[in-house]
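Methods: holo model generation. Sequences were used as deposited, without trimming of termini or removal of tags, and paired with ligand SMILES retrieved from the corresponding compound records. Each pair was processed once, and we did not select among multiple samples. The sequence and guanosine-5'-triphosphate SMILES for this entry were:
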Amino acid sequence: MEKIPVFVLSGFLGSGKTTLLKRLLQTCEEKGVTPAVLMNEIGKTDMDGEIILEKNKQQIMEKLLDGCICCSKKSEVADSITKLLQNQPDVIFIELTGVANPEEVVDSLTEPELIDYLYLEKVITVLDGENVLEYNSIFESVRELVRTTRRQIEVADLLIVNKVDLISESHREKVKKVIKKQNTVSPVYFTSYSEVDSDLLLGDVKVIKNKLSLHEKKHAHAHHEHKHHHNHNHEHKHDHNHEHKDNRSYSRINTITLDFSQQMKPTKVDKFLKKWRPNLLRAKGYIPLKDGCYLLQHVMKRTYLEPSEHMGRHYLVMIGIDLNTDEVEREWAKLNV
Ligand SMILES: Nc1nc2c(ncn2[C@@H]2O[C@H](COP(=O)(O)OP(=O)(O)OP(=O)(O)O)[C@@H](O)[C@H]2O)c(=O)[nH]1
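and the model returned the structure below.
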């Protein structure tokens, strides 16, 4: 039996994972390959899912909301993937939340009901070239985040340093040096808007499948064992603790969803978001401007706006560390009177 390759897309909040996923899906379409997607988002609202579906309403997709794969029960992840398998995809992409450790999902893929049907092809980690070097100092007080961002680099099979349009050549070299220290083996690509030759990442999925039938299951098992061993060497204690935690108590990372009662000027939204620095890590939303609906993306210091065809409700999701929900909601209400 041919196994289905799984690509795990990891990387911190706002690094460019969804941008990469859109490209990969496009490549699949061009190649006539059928992809399936598992999106995992913290917070109750699934923004990335909507962004992907906006382009292709037929997309085979499952979503795990309001929890991260690390903390969700393994059976939940397995159930979602089982549903995807019913559509007989050629390839599966799993986009992790920005705060997930990739290794946890790898564990789920080896659940008994899945192991015979799929294998982990690659963990691809996307890094925000502009901010990655600052993570250690920004998250100094949140060791869990420092550890997660490190793990995302360490366990990657392939690293994409994205947003090079925003950094200098020398900054780029510095980033490369730091990454190479943490992961000496995996190739590193530098990109803008996650534009990497998809063939490099995917190869020809159909060819991969043919090769697989020659290799049989060996490759999949070897790959997994290597990772498993590697991971547990480092963080056995952490993983163990983690398994017993409830989703909500996972970390100091919290999300707040805000609604709009009226149109709002982008400068007003931007000013509001800036207020919550440095606790605010990321914000996204569909916001009502004078000339229609816009997709807003806020990453560290920057706010991006692009016109959207989104027809549903308008909202803004904030993801932060120890964001004071009451205070944020109070301040938001003042803007929305
Ligand atoms: N300047 C610049 N912006 C980029 C680049 N890549 C992505 N962006 C923008 O950065 C924002 C976040 O990109 P996403 O692809 O949504 O990032 P993500 O990793 O999926 O974010 P999360 O879902 O929060 O984890 C979007 O507004 C992108 O258009 C890049 O190379 N350069």
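The longest strand covers residues 118-128.
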